[in-house]
């Protein structure tokens, strides 16, 4: 295991379609985070999991967004009825605990046409 | 709400010169992280600063943390072209360490040969 992986790396979709992204954290890490980064900005926190429990969601995470981590390993982030404003890089990170640094995956770049 | 500000936002410098990037944050925190991001890439961890007065150095980069002033600096010594990237600081929004990062706006560094 060499790090956090994300799939797909790029996704182009039409407005109104649903998309799902996957994140595989570093295997022994129990915390998993999702961030969104738009062009020229720093990443913004979306949500995080400790094992399979989703413990916080940002106000940025509208009702169209849902995230899961069913067995405390990989996580999925689904966006329903995509809008052009959803176009961004979606980053996943993992850590051993809240005292450790977060390691980021390569990201999924979403383009909504 | 915690705010994290970096300055400058853009920095163009000649090779061989020294410069400092500043990261100010608005509420108490004793955990600060520096990341590097190359265009279209994810975030690479540079430094983890976990206490007041912490100083870390790696190659031409040195980071420090002053929790009383709510300030971290990233100092570049004798810059080289390979350091061209965007640098982000990120803060844990609590003294005991929590679960999410609040990122700064980023400093886009360009080192001219």
What does this structure look like?
The complex is a heterodimer of chains A (113) and B (113). Chain A is mostly beta strands and 113 residues long. Chain A contains no helices and 11 strands. Chain B has 113 residues and is mainly β. In chain B, strands 2, 4, 5, 9, 10 and 11 form a 6-stranded mixed β-sheet that branches. A 5-stranded antiparallel β-sheet of chain B has the order 1-3-8-7-6, with no helix packed on it. In chain B, a hairpin with a 5-residue loop joins strand 4 (32-37) and strand 5. Chain B is globular, with a radius of gyration of 13 Å.
What's the story with the biggest beta sheet of chain B? 6 strands, mixed
Q: Provide a count of the helices of chain A.
A: 0
Return residue spans of chain B where pLDDT drops below 50 for at least 5 consecutive residues. Answer: none
Query: Radius of gyration of chain A, rounded?
Result: 13 Å
Summary tags:
heterodimer; A: 113 residues; mainly beta; 7-stranded mixed beta sheet; 4-stranded antiparallel beta sheet; 11 strands; globular; B: 113 residues; 6-stranded mixed beta sheet; 5-stranded antiparallel beta sheet
Produce a short descriptive summary.
Chain A is mainly β.
Break the fold down into its secondary structure elements and pairings.
The complex is a heterodimer of chains A (113) and B (113).
Chain A: E1 5-7, E2 10-13, E3 19-24, E4 31-37, E5 44-50, E6 53-57, E7 65-68, E8 75-79, E9 88-95, E10 103-104, E11 108-112
Parallel strand pairs in A: 2-11
Antiparallel strand pairs in A: 1-3, 3-8, 4-5, 4-9, 5-6, 7-8, 9-10, 9-11
Chain B: E1 4-7, E2 10-14, E3 19-25, E4 32-37, E5 43-49, E6 55-58, E7 61-66, E8 71-76, E9 85-91, E10 102-103, E11 107-112
Parallel strand pairs in B: 2-11
Antiparallel strand pairs in B: 1-3, 3-8, 4-5, 4-9, 6-7, 7-8, 9-10, 9-11
């Amino acid at each position: 295991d060499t790090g956090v992986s994300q799939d797909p790396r790029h996704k182009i979709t039409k407005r109104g379609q649903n998309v799902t992204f996957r994140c595989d954290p570093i295997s022994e890490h129990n915390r998993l985070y999702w961030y969104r980064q738009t062009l020229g900005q720093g990443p913004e926190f979306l949500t995080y999991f400790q094992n399979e429990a989703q413990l916080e969601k940002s106000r940025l995470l509208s009702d169209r967004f849902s995230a899961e981590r069913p067995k405390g390993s990989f996580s999925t982030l689904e966006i329903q009825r995509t809008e052009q404003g959803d176009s961004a890089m979606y980053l996943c990170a993992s850590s051993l605990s809240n005292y450790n640094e977060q390691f980021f995956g390569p990201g999924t770049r979403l383009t909504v046409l | 709400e915690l705010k994290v500000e970096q300055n400058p936002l853009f920095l163009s410098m000649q090779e061989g010169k020294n410069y400092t990037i500043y990261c100010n944050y608005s509420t108490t925190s004793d955990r600060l992280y520096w990341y590097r991001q190359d265009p279209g890439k994810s975030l690479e961890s540079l430094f983890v600063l976990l206490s007041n007065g912490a100083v870390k150095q790696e190659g031409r980069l040195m980071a420090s943390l002053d929790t009383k002033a709510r300030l971290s600096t990233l100092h570049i010594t004798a810059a080289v072209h390979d350091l061209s990237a965007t640098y982000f600081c990120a803060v844990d929004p609590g003294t005991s360490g929590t679960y999410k990062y609040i990122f700064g706006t980023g400093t886009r560094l360009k080192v001219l040969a």
